[in-house]
């Protein structure tokens, strides 16, 4: 295919699908990296540093999408993890989804706290939310609320992948709403699993 003869709509279609494939391959790579690094038990990162990395990456993502998003991180924990890649993958996907859910401007809050013996990670955003009739489906493989301008669906892999990772730590992930009805994803992981 000669680059000079490609229709603009075709080029855009290809670029969008390449982006989706890239996102999927990054998720797969993150999972594989976690498996390969299980033997490197001495690699530890604080939860505060990990959350900070997620915020910084998604500030750049929001900027790339030309969105004005205020990020708030609440994390005053003296806790670290050896499962850096797995937790980074989960949190980054949740926050990136929140960035994508906000039309032009808004806010995203990432909160990390201890509740009993569990690490609780909560992502809340000012986006339009997930309709109530779709909430039971969000963790099902292939389900998506994201469509490109041509009506083509996203892969629906992200939240299913996150759920599997969280379950591998004997934790759980759930979709709730905050006191104002805004979408909120909450992850609970026993701190002894970190």
From TrEMBL:
Per its record, the protein catalyses:
ATP + protein L-histidine = ADP + protein N-phospho-L-histidine
Q: Which domain of life is it from?
A: Bacteria
Entry's PROSITE patterns? HIS_KIN
Q: Which UniProt keywords apply?
A: ATP-binding, Kinase, Nucleotide-binding, Phosphoprotein, Transferase, Two-component regulatory system
Record keyword Transferase present: yes
Report domain Histidine kinase positions: 87-193
Please give one Pfam family short name. HATPase_c
| Top-level EC class as recorded in UniProt | transferase
Biological process annotations from GO: phosphorelay signal transduction system
The region annotated as signal peptide is: none
**Entry's EC annotation:** 2.7.13.3
GO MF, one term, reads: protein histidine kinase activity
Q: Is Mitochondrion one of the keywords UniProt gives this record?
A: no
Matches recorded under InterPro entries: 2C_sensor_his_kinase, HATPase_C_sf, HATPase_dom, His_kinase_dom, Sig_transdc_His_kin-like_C
- The name this protein carries in UniProt is histidine kinase
């Amino acid at each position: 295919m000669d680059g000079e003869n490609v229709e603009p709509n075709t080029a855009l279609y290809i670029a969008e699908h390449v982006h989706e494939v890239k996102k999927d391959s990054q998720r797969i790579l993150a999972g594989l990296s976690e498996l390969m690094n299980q033997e490197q038990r001495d690699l530890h990162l604080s939860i505060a540093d990990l959350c900070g990395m997620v915020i910084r990456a998604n500030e750049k993502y929001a900027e790339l999408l030309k969105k004005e998003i205020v990020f708030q991180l609440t994390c005053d924990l003296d806790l670290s993890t050896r499962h850096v890649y797995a937790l980074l993958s989960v949190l980054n996907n949740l926050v990136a989804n929140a960035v994508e859910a906000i039309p032009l401007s808004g806010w995203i809050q990432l909160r990390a706290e201890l509740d009993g013996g569990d690490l609780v990670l909560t992502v809340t955003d000012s986006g339009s939310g997930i309709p109530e009739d779709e909430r039971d489906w969000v963790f099902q493989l292939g389900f998506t609320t994201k469509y490109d301008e041509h009506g083509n669906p996203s892969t629906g892999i992200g939240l299913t992948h996150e759920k599997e990772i969280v379950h591998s730590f004997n934790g759980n992930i759930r979709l709730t709403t905050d006191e104002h009805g805004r979408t909120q994803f909450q992850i609970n992981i026993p701190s002894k699993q970190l």
